[in-house]
Design brief:
Elements: H1 12-39, H2 41-44, H3 47-56, H4 91-100, H5 105-108, H6 126-137, H7 144-151, H8 155-167, H9 184-187, H10 219-231, H11 241-246, H12 251-262
Helix pairs in contact: 1-3, 4-8, 6-7, 6-8, 10-12
Bound molecules: heme C (2 copies).
One heme C is lined by residues 103-104, 106-108, 118-119, 121, 129, 132-133, 141, 143, 145-146, 149, 161, 212.
Length: 270
Amino acid sequence: MSEPRTYTWSNRGFRWSVLSLVGLTVIAMLVGFIWLPAVHPDFQSEGLWASICRAAGVPYRWGGAGQAGKATEPLSTKVVLDRQMARVGTTEAVGRGATLALNCTMCHGARGLSSSDAPNLAGQYPEVVIKQLNDYKAGKRSSAIMQALAGRLSDRDIADLAAYYAYLPKARTAPTTYDESLPSLVRTGDPLRNIAPCISCHGGVDQKLGAPWLEGMPKAYLVTQLKAFATGARRNDSEAQMRNMARPMTESEIDAVATFYARKAQSSAP
Ligand code: HEC
Ligand code: HEC
């Protein structure tokens, strides 16, 4: 039987194991918090301290505006989504919304299906319409025409318009099978680049509160929006979730997902 070992500082093996553990930890931290973030474009924008905090997953500035982008920029959106907004509107709200929507048909179509490159609103989730109109109204999403129009709408107008559009039939239902014929970003995303599958938020498999229905949207609109997220020209998505996914997408991936969502329907909804 050997003597029980004593793990004290005077024990050479013990000393070495502690020192090498500390050394390795320091190296791992340098690599993980400084070197990798420093070469990754998503992390570079706001300096070393921001990179370190982002790598560690903690806010680098307290006080609310941390996620919004540039330090001086206001919050990307003021709208706090809640389940109430996603509720089906009353018949009265739908009726009132239909009247208000007469001002919108010129671009968004008589039944909410645009024949120009404006987004479809028919069948859009109510909380999406509410959020987007409030973002235009507050100047958080820019569009000369929509900012001017939304600025004149009251909260009730917005809720009623959302109820009306949610009530109209969608351009198209979602595919019923998710096989290899769909673009891989739509179906599986790309975990290595932090891109989650589009169908996990945009309907089809699951819908995340506030994520718009995309099926049947005009292709040009989808491409414009994805590029605007990628450059940060559009930044009303909370937590930068769309910006972070659009940024690493290539031109041809943007084209592929937009083509997919805008594809002409064989199995269109009624
Ligand atoms: C002159 C054309 C025009 C008129 C009229 C118009 N819109 Fe729009 N709307 C647009 C365009 C173009 C966009 C996309 C703008 C952008 O790039 O942000 C848009 C975007 C929207 C969006 C965002 C949709 C989404 O999927 O993100 C909503 C909601 C909306 N409009 C509602 C309305 C409502 C409600 C009215 C009537 C009160 C209206 N619009 C009138 C052209 C118009
Ligand atoms: C984690 C959830 C999530 C995933 C995954 C996701 N999105 Fe989004 N997307 C959102 C949300 C939320 C919004 C609304 C942002 C806002 O509030 O303006 C949005 C907005 C959009 C818009 C703007 C639509 C409009 O009418 O305003 C497009 C286009 C879009 N996403 C495309 C995609 C594509 C393509 C993919 C897959 C590569 C994808 N998204 C994956 C959550 C997601």
